[in-house]
Design brief:
With about 425 residues, the chain is of the alpha+beta class. The protein is about 60% helix and about 15% strand. A six-stranded antiparallel β-sheet has the order 2-1-6-5-4-3, sandwiched between helices. A five-stranded mixed β-sheet has the order 7-8-9-11-10, covered by helices on one side. Strand 1 (about 130-135) and strand 2 form a beta hairpin. Helix 1 (about 10-35) runs antiparallel to helix 2 and helix 12 (about 335-355) runs antiparallel to helix 13 (about 390-400). The protein is rod-shaped, with a radius of gyration of 50 Å. The termini are far apart.
């Protein structure tokens, strides 16, 4: 039985559907071999297979009445002759095309598994844990993985077509970090965007990357918050220390004033009693007390004024005590730092002779980033116990901190005094 006689039967309808599916499959095969950049022979075979499949589809999907009525046309004459063939011939052709389609598809799959194809590259890029996009010099996106596509849509509301627009959005919404931009997304994540120019096959391209740094950003923010609290605590501690020092000095001054007040008050009361009742007052004791307080007052009044150059005076004192001074570095020619170093040298010289039994004080100075560090040591016996900051050492610490510096004392294995103060040339 010819196909013409069974065209409108159920079997004819099934054969027409099969020819349509085969034709669609053959078109897919052509697209894939071209996309995989296969050899010219493979592309040609796929094209001929699709052409033959289209011809079979055209014949089987024709209208018998139109073909018979328009038999004068070449194609319809060809179709009319084809319809006279047994329907098994068409079924056999469909079976052959189905087999060819299967072989082509299997070949495409094997080729994609054994060779690097554009699809392979796209799949590999999509599996990367970072967002990545490659664009040309015009800002057009040529290749982007899924992660970068999602980030682009979240930032711009647009698909990943314009890499230049994505970078502009990153610059506006991100925090500049040495040319990189940290962008905090609406979902709470943070990404570090970077841009670099690369060259492939002599052509320039722009590479965009986005690394998920959510955890690092969280840790950094936490550290910054803690540092801010530490700075606040440090500021309060400095303020408390300064206030405590002032209170200590006020207490010492009050104690001295009280002592003077009590002493002179007692002396004045004894004088008044002597004037009123000379027979009841010990005149010799009164004279001794008056002599003692007069000497104290005269000593304060006749005390020489502080030397103009405490550093030079410290050197003279060391020479009088027979202590050698070894200096490494340059001593400032003037200013408060020079005066501080003079006081420190005097204190170290006196303590070397008094407590350590030495005859040499070494001093090393170093300047670094706007600070001057002076280290004092001696050749005497090291302290048996930690040095107590009393008297001169306590005054030296106050002078150092008043200049915004730091004083450190080491007792073991040997004595070491270090002063670090701000210093500009």
């Amino acid at each position: 039985m010819s196909y013409l006689n069974m065209m409108y039967s159920f079997l004819g309808a099934v054969m027409r559907v099969m020819s349509a599916l085969l034709f669609l499959g053959q078109l897919y095969v052509c697209q894939q071999v071209i996309h995989q950049r296969r050899k010219a022979g493979t592309v040609l075979l796929a094209a001929l297979n699709a052409l033959a499949g289209s011809l079979l589809f055209g014949v089987l999907s024709g209208d018998r009445d139109r073909v018979v009525a328009g038999a004068s046309l070449r194609y319809q004459q060809f179709a009319l002759r084809a319809y006279t063939l047994p329907w098994l011939v068409f079924l056999g052709l469909e079976a052959v095309f189905a087999l060819l389609l299967f072989l082509f598809v299997r070949n495409i799959i094997r080729f994609s598994h054994r060779n690097v194809t554009p699809d392979t590259i796209k799949e590999a890029v999509d599996l990367l844990p970072v967002g990545i996009c490659f664009g040309n010099g015009k800002g057009e996106a040529l290749l982007a993985n899924i992660r970068m596509t999602n980030l682009c849509f979240a930032l711009t509301g647009l698909p990943m077509n314009n890499a230049a627009a994505l970078w502009e959005a990153v610059r506006q919404k991100g925090e500049n970090q040495d040319g990189h931009y940290l962008v905090r997304m609406a979902d709470g994540t943070a990404h570090l965007f970077s841009r670099a120019q690369i060259t492939m096959n002599g052509k320039p391209y722009i590479q965009f990357t986005a690394v998920d740094v959510t955890e690092q950003a969280r840790v950094t923010a936490d550290l910054l918050a803690r540092n801010a609290k530490l700075w606040e605590v440090q500021y309060r501690m400095k303020a408390y220390h300064a206030q405590a020092m002032e209170m200590f000095m006020d207490e010492e001054l009050l104690s001295a004033r009280t002592e003077v007040h009590d002493g002179w008050g007692h002396l004045l009361l004894m004088g008044r009693a002597y004037l009123e009742h000379p027979e009841k007052t010990d005149e010799e004791k009164l004279l001794q007390m008056m002599e003692q307080y007069n000497r104290s007052m005269l000593a304060d009044a006749e005390a020489p004024s502080p030397p103009a150059d405490s550093w030079a005076e410290a050197l003279r004192r060391a020479d009088r005590l027979g202590v050698r001074i070894k200096i490494t570095g340059d001593v400032p020619e003037k200013g408060r730092v020079r005066s501080l170093l003079g006081h420190a040298l005097s204190e170290c010289t006196a303590n070397t002779v008094k407590h350590a039994g030495g005859d040499q004080v070494s001093m090393t100075m170093e300047r670094n980033h706007g600070f001057l560090t002076a280290v004092f040591s001696n050749n005497g016996q090291p302290p048996e116990e930690p040095v107590q900051e009393l008297g001169g050492l306590l005054s030296l610490r106050r002078m150092t901190e008043k200049l915004g510096g730091v004083m450190e004392i080491r007792s073991s294995p040997d004595f070491r005094l270090a002063l670090t103060v701000p210093f500009d040339e």
